[in-house]
Amino acid sequence: MPTPDLLDPKKEHTLVLVKPDGFRRGLTGEILRRIESKGYVLKGLKIKQADRALLEEHYAEHRERPFFQGLIEYMSASPLVAIVVEGDRVIEGVRSLMGTTNPTLAAPGTIRGDLGRDWGTGQVENLVHGSDSTTSAIREIALWFPELEYHAED
Ligand code: UDP
User: Fold this and answer.
1) Which among 154, 109, 124, 150 is positioned nearest to 59, based on CA atoms?
2) Residue of 67, 102, 128 best suited for mutating to test ligand 1, as the one with most atoms within 8 Å of CB
């Protein structure tokens, strides 16, 4: 049996963040319920106050975008919950559970569509992050969970 802090490299993993607005609003349980009900397995979970350096690295691809500074402010305003989730096609599956970026436009039935609000502040607060590709997932898990190691099950 693998110990809980080890990841099986043969399985697919993604990084989920319950963003500060989701954690503040007490929606962590609801978001985890949707992920677990789908059959995905939690492999790591922590509450964290993210600093600017971590977030600038996490969102490096958006560095030149006009919303970048606001995004860093939003994500560092209060603690968030970081989670490693495992499952078949979990990267696509979590993206599908999340819904599209803007909560006003996200489909009903999705986390952002059901629970997200447009506060009219110009800053998109959309409750949740999920890695968008295998490359991103591996990079983001290493960034947020450097203590997790990959070990094949025997
Ligand atoms: N974002 C924003 N304004 C935008 C686009 C994105 O504030 O016009 C924020 C939003 O929090 C989003 C994050 O930047 O979740 C990352 O953007 P991306 O396009 O990667 O969206 P996601 O993959 O999270 O749906």
Assistant:
1) 124
2) 67
